[in-house]
User: Fold Transmembrane emp24 domain-containing protein bai from Asbolus verrucosus.
Amino acid sequence: MKLCYYLCLIFAFLANVDCIMWTLKPNTQKCLKEELQGNVPVVGEFEVSEAMGQKVDYVVRDSKGHILAQRDDITKGKFSFNTENYDTYEICFISRAPPNVRGIGQDVSLVTKHGVETKNYETFGDAAQLKPIEKELKRLEDLSNEIVQDFALMRKREEEMRDTNGSESRTILNIILNTMLLLSESTNSRVLYFSVFSMCCLLGLATWQVLYLRRYFKAKKLIE
Assistant:
């Protein structure tokens, strides 16, 4: 029994329950984002403090802008949706205050659950005639399976990122090698042109020296 108790504490600590509170300033919006796998149920419960003349809306959408849940002028309520694909989902709360009203901040509290935590094991256990410890073990089994799936997804993403980084590194290395090869070919051609130019200069200088010495010796009547 003690082992089951400690397991319950550990998995309860790892449960996918998020609770957050903040103050939403007038005419602003606050968005919370989270990456979720496909086919995952998500439920949320929110509460917004009232302010005279002000309204708060909420909208839930994916990274492509598809709206999954939406409601205007909220104070307290719940929402639920199912994810379709692995994606980043966001929950936005938008404050609206009239221009002639000096707005005040409104307190917003949000509790979200997804995956195993959205299931009602009390109802499931009563229907299956399970004992309380069996209900808890069933919940822990589902939670452990969900954690294993999360780790498998993280490993898959790590492999994809590693492959992507490897291909990018090879591409960059090829670009660097090609650039160095072009620079080397350009440098070789420049060295060749410079060598030819230097030889022409040396030949011209030698010819000028011979002609100059010949005129000098003729002027001194040393040669005819």
Remarks:
- The chain has one domain: 2-162.
- The mean pLDDT is 79.
- Residues 2-162 form a domain with the Jelly Rolls fold (CATH 2.60.120.380).
- The chain has three helices and eight strands.
